Amino acid sequence: MNKVILMGRLTRDPEVRYTQTNNTLVASFSLAVNRRFAKQGEERQADFINIVAWNKTGEFCSKYFKKGQQVGVVGRIQTRNWEDDQGQKHYVTEVIAEEAYFADSKRDGDTSNFENTFGSNVSENSEFTTSSDDELPF
Known about the structure:
By secondary structure, this protein is an alpha+beta fold. It contains two helices and six strands. Strand 5 and strand 6 form a beta hairpin.
């Protein structure tokens, strides 16, 4: 099984490009993911992990993710290699995002473009909405 779950901060805004063959959107960005423990007397270290998001996931990331924002990504690890014009081989390991989420807590007075655009529509169309007359099972 190849499954990765990460939470970290974007080190830069997502970079968008389109494939030459069928004009598919691809968004790339890097996450700074803190290591779980720090050695005594040292600062906590972070790993910088390259993320690639395709199609709708890539569109979502490019539209709503910004540098410094904390996000969650679920995906898979993929490796690839290529040879450049000088004959030098290059290897890269990256995470292909299958799902992407906001992980920042909402700050007072802070409204994101996502909430302004989709906030009311998401709850209205959700099958889990309740009215004040509904009884909650817990």
